[in-house]
């Protein structure tokens, strides 16, 4: 979907979060990515786009660990 819209996957994800009425706070170390992230506010997602995204990753469904196995083990206390 990102490729079809001519945007990055990150921009698509940020645009989706914005469409839900939330303000994402992405972190970055490079100006290039800051500018890329800021451009997400110009991405227009139609209701069809949003339904399509949410059919791929349904709301409330965990899609994996936030950390790798080693880091997860360090969090088990």
Write a compact overview of the structure shown.
With 77 residues, the protein is mainly alpha-helical.
Task: Describe the protein's architecture and organization.
This protein is mainly α. The protein has one domain. Helix content is 52%, strand content 0%. It has 5 helices and no strands. The chain has helices spanning 2-5, 9-19, 31-38, 47-56, 69-75. The longest helix has 11 residues, at 9-19. The mean pLDDT is 89.
List keywords for this structure.
77 residues, mainly alpha, globular
Please describe the topology of this protein:
Blueprint: H1 2-5, H2 9-19, H3 31-38, H4 47-56, H5 69-75
| Strand composition percent | under 5%
What count of structural domains? 1
Largest sheet report: none
From N to C, what is the helix and strand string? HHHHH
Structural class: mainly alpha
Mean pLDDT: 89
Q: How would you classify the quaternary structure?
A: single chain
